[in-house]
Amino acid sequence: MSxxxxxxxxxxxxxxxxxxxxxxxxxxxxxxxxxxxxxVLALLxxxxxLPFLWAIATAFKTETDAASGDPSxxxxxxxxxxxxxxxxxxGNVYTWAFNSLWTSAAVxxxxxxxxxxxxxxxxRLNFTGRKWxxxxxxxxxxVPPQVLIIPLFYQMLTFNMIDTYWGLILPQVVVPxxxxxxxxxxxxxxxxxxxxxxxxxxxxxRIFWSIVLPLSRPILASVAIFVFIGAWNNFLWxxxxxxxxxxxxxxxxxxxxxxxxxxxxxxxxxxxxxxxLPLIIVFIIFQKQIVKGVAxxxxxxx
Amino acid sequence: xxxxxTGSVAASGAATRTIVTGSASGIRLRRPGSxxxxxxxxxxxxxxxxxxxxxxxxxxxxxxxxLSFTDQSLTGAGGGxxxxxxYGEALTDPVMWQSMWNxxxxxxxxxxxxxxxxxxxxxxxxxxxxxxxxxxxSFFMPYLLASTVISQIWVWIFxxxxxxxxxxxxxxxxxxxxxxxxxxxxxxxxxIATVWWTVGFNFLLYLAAMQNIPSQQYExxxxxxxxxxxxxxxxxxxxxxxxxxxxxxxxILASLKLFDQAYQMLGGVASDTTxxxxxxxxxxxxxxYRFGYSAAISYVFFALIVIIGVxxxxxxxxxxxx
Lengths: 302, 322
Known about the structure:
- The complex is a heterodimer of chains A (302) and B (322).
- Chain A has 302 residues and is mainly α.
- In chain A, 67% of the residues lie in helices and 0% in strands.
- Chain A has helices at 3-8, 32-59, 63-67, 82-88, 92-124, 130-139, 149-158, 165-169, 176-187, 192-199, 204-215, 217-233, 236-241, 250-261, 265-285, 287-297.
- Residues 1-20 of chain A have low confidence and may be disordered.
- Chain B is an all-alpha fold and 322 residues long.
- In chain B, 69% of the residues lie in helices and 2% in strands.
- Chain B has a two-stranded antiparallel sheet.
- In chain B, α4 (94-125) packs across α13 and α8 (186-211) runs antiparallel to α11.
- The radius of gyration of chain B is 27 Å and the shape is globular.
- At the A-B interface, α1, α2, α5, α6 and α7 of A face α1, β2, α2, α4 and α5 of B.
């Protein structure tokens, strides 16, 4: 049923990284309309940056300054890194960041590997039941993971996987939308490239590994980035399946200490800023790929 | 890759070495038994995904249906068959309907700004103004933040005594609000935070769709004397139809799954005006330990999602036929 939605994305391809509309004849580079557009854009950007900038400003205040309600950007006592020092001295933040990093990487790798293999079979191989199996996989895109928390939790209880990394990782690796995206991409690779290798006697796996995968790097990167962001920010499932403080991911761990800190606003903001930092740095470095990834595989996320 | 290829291979399989001309895919070499081999190879490629798919998607769906007909408890107690009792209770449970309404209300409130503001942002950025890097960073960055982080930031901003939101209201001479602490404004507060958090995603989808419009169309219109407004209304907007349908559907489906930020911004406290259906599933299962009942609510919610999915499929099919 989502096939119709998905096929529409064919019309959406990655935005050219630097493609800019040229100045059109008769359009002044700094006409009043352009200046107005710039002004609105700047206002929107400020509006979108302010909440985050305010969080940063608070993080550099003393607790007393933060709690005073003084709306100035720098506290009366001047900027301080007290709040950051307090957070970092507690240790758990490192553990959570490390857990988030490696479990998200594991989810990404496993998802990518199993989805690419399956997508190749759906795209290139003939087997009994290919059609209906693909329909089942595509139809399952519509199942919201939130609907499955009860039976999945029950399953993890049965498998003794509550409070384990596997219990956290495995239920996240099934992303049928990614199979669909990859199959579409494989379909577009000219089959002649593979036929030549087959005449030379190369096995299917060899063809997949040394011809198809290298040609698919851009789409693999898109899917990987998207799955990684999803896993890094996932809240509900890690929140349910992990109770042990030392196994928690960053979002779940941070959530447990909101109440523990009570009214220590500077510390809560320092913690929010620290948790946000890695992904912001990743975004600044990989902006092009991320923008492209959202455009090509964005609809697969939930 | 057509089935006709397979058919002809099977028909001529007796020959020791057969060359089959595929209908669209060029020349294939086939050896005897290669069809069986290809079956084996296919299932080898599929196996890892299918095992995970069966274990963590298909089985939970089936088992969830079974659980919804039992009085299974998280504590391990119960488990007896209760027929449609859970569904009967769900459909007459005022909290279930309130959660369903809250979810729909949130979806209505959030979808419009999330689509309109995204369109505005993309239309402006697509003008090719200087600072492309900064615009994308500002609008999309919040989307990269975990729900925990955005919840903490907005709880701080919405603090009724010392929060920035009330400082802004006071600066404009308006009455301060209690935001998250008032049942009349808590859903609105969640909507504001959500729009800030996720609009960048729709913005990027719109931007990609706009950049796909050939620039020759604008050049031609420009030569005919069409100004930027005219170009936007007559060239850009009409061609954004498919993208808008896609963004709307994705947004509605995403908004219906409200839980993370609503739960966290209220500090895990259940509020009658913000409790979403996913939150009620969570509460029934993990706070009240009623797995069977929780599973039944899950399927009522799933039915809603499927209805929207089917409606969307029908709408887009009709669009294609026209």
